């Protein structure tokens, strides 16, 4: 008897489908990849990504809820550091805490083409796995590059549902692949690990970021933890769906999965080499407008925030969504375009302190935020993801109008921060945690990580 209900496919039809060709190419590529196969440009960017991630994790670990979580989980003792806290945890708990801390300040790197933040979903997991296995620094970098690559490519190949937050989704697959690589898995075991991980993504809600619900900060932490778990499942003999990634990202969490994108220029174009770094401590969607505001201030000179009668912002859809002027939490403030612009005008920059309690209680900032009007420009939306445009117009009390437009965000591949810029960001975040002397030792250790026999020295510095 056949099925007549629309949209339901018989098992005999489903099970007759062959394994996807791209998956075989990917698992063979990942299994065979040696550190020496990775071009220097990608290796150099991976070092910077690792350094940047360590800095944002350590700074985020100082936030009360991250510190409290680390202390709570430290009751289950283990050898893995909760970075910057002085506490040692079970490796899976450390991966959760480090991934969570790394997203808390909204300063973790990202990839505009993947529409997400691949590294913070991978770095804590591969650090935990490398510590467990005694992997070399070169093996750590290779695992980071691979985990970043597959996570980012799933983001490129699919379109997450608009109600979902990208954290905690395809990053779990990246973490699993990185961990499998650290463990020296062959192609078959790599396929099992990433297939299992495809079923372990979270049902993330986009509204968490708009409401300031800090459960959102845990999504990347859970991806790291689940990436480690996926390897344990694979090594224990659990079996994945034949094409879990195609199923999950082709119709469950996302739509329009394009297998071709998974292997396009594989081994030639490296996603980690076209990442971006962040200096504004706010959602990436606010950065175009913040950069345009910086242009206005550079050209006009000092501006009295009280003289700004109104601020008009034209931008793309996802930035225009961030229109709430009175955020209730630090996280919500980082996802408020009116607040971010007002805070930058009043305080001079959108740094970490610009979104804390003191700033959110500042009546000048709140009053100015209510004078910011945000509007989607469909022509700007059409320029995604290659460009992230925004136009900002200030109307002053004397009637003057000051305007500037940004097509890309500072830090994007089209307008990148230099390696020195990234290191300076690290020093600014790491200094209050470790002090200047130890911070410089961490910079040096990461710069030479691919020549290190193990990562114990680096972990000792950040522990």
From TrEMBL:
Domain MmgE/PrpD N-terminal positions: 28-238
Superkingdom field: Bacteria
Pfam family, one: MmgE_PrpD_N
Every MmgE/PrpD C-terminal domain range: 280-445
Molecular function in Gene Ontology: lyase activity
Record-linked Gene3D superfamilies: 2-methylcitrate dehydratase PrpD
PANTHER family in the record: 2-METHYLCITRATE DEHYDRATASE, 2-METHYLCITRATE DEHYDRATASE-RELATED
Family: Belongs to the PrpD family.
Entry protein name: MmgE/PrpD family protein
Originating organism: Methylobacterium nonmethylotrophicum
């Amino acid at each position: 008897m056949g099925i007549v209900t629309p949209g339901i496919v018989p098992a005999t039809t489903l099970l007759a489908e062959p394994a996807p060709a791209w998956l075989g190419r990917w698992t063979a590529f990942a299994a065979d990849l040696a550190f020496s196969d990775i071009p220097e440009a990608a290796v150099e960017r991976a070092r910077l990504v690792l350094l940047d991630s360590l800095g944002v994790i350590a700074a985020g670990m100082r936030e009360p809820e991250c510190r409290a979580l680390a202390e709570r989980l430290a009751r289950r003792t283990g050898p893995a550091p909760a970075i910057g806290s002085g506490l040692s945890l079970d490796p899976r708990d450390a991966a959760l805490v480090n991934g969570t801390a790394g997203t808390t300040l909204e300063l973790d790197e990202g990839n505009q083409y993947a529409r997400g933040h691949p590294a913070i979903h991978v770095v804590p997991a591969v650090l935990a796995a490398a510590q467990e296995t005694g992997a070399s620094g070169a093996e750590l970098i290779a695992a980071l590059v691979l985990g970043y690559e597959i996570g980012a490519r799933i983001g490129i190949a699919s379109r997450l549902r608009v109600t979902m937050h990208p954290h905690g989704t395809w990053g779990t697959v990246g973490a699993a692949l990185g961990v499998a690589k650290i463990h020296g898995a062959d192609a078959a075991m790599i396929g099992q690990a990433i297939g299992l991980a495809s079923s372990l993504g979270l049902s993330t809600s986009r509204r968490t970021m708009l409401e300031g619900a800090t459960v959102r900060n845990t999504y990347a932490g859970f991806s790291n933890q689940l990436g480690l778990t996926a390897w344990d499942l694979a090594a224990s003999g659990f079996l994945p769906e034949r094409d879990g990634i195609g199923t999950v990202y082709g119709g469950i969490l996302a739509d329009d999965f394009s297998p071709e994108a998974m292997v396009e220029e594989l081994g030639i174009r490296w996603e980690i080499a076209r990442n971006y770094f962040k200096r504004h401590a706010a959602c990436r969607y606010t950065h175009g407008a913040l950069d345009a505001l910086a242009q206005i201030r550079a050209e006009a000179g000092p501006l009295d925030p009280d003289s700004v009668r109104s601020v008009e912002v034209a931008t793309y859809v996802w930035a225009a969504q961030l229109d709430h002027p009175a955020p209730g939490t630090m996280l919500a403030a980082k996802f408020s375009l009116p607040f971010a612009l007002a805070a930058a005008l009043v305080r001079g920059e959108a740094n970490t302190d610009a979104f804390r309690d003191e700033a959110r209680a500042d009546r000048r900032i709140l009053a100015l935020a209510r004078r910011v009007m945000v509007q989607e420009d469909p022509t700007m939306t059409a320029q995604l993801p290659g460009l992230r445009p925004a136009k900002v117009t200030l109307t002053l009390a004397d009637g003057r109008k000051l305007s500037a437009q940004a097509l890309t965000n500072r830090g994007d591949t089209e307008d990148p921060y230099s390696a020195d810029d990234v290191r300076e960001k690290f020093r600014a975040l790491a200094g209050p945690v470790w002090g200047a002397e130890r911070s410089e030792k961490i910079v040096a250790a990461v710069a030479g990580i691919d020549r290190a026999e193990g990562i114990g020295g680096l972990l000792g510095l950040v522990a």
